[in-house]
Amino acid sequence: MKLTELKDVIEMQMDALSSNLGMPRTLTPTIEHQIEGFATVISGIRRCGKSTIMAQVINKTPEPNIYLNFDTPRLSNFTLNDFELVDALAKKLNAKHLFFDEIQLVHGWENYVRSTLDNASYAQKTHLLSPAKYAMN
User: How many beta carbons lie within 10 A of that of residue 7, not counting itself?
Assistant: First the structure.
């Protein structure tokens, strides 16, 4: 994957996300205040509103942010190494938060999240929220 291709996917998905915020969820304000400095995982059964909550949190979070939904053909070959492109783009855009939807589709995603949070200089600026099916161990 190339950096320009990733940037195009992010821009397309951010535009689509901002136009579809769904019905307001009562859980959204609680999550908004808990994302600083931690990986936040939203889990639940299919179609229960996880992505809607994420969209509402992103809408209330100061920009710039990066949002990636891995459940798309354009990211079907995304690998653990491609997260280096996410990091490069985050630094270039001065992104304050990373939001990942369906991140469990990327093999080894837990390693990326853990290393990002362990890197104090970067983790202070970047926070993760993911409606992944599987929580980190």
Answer: 15
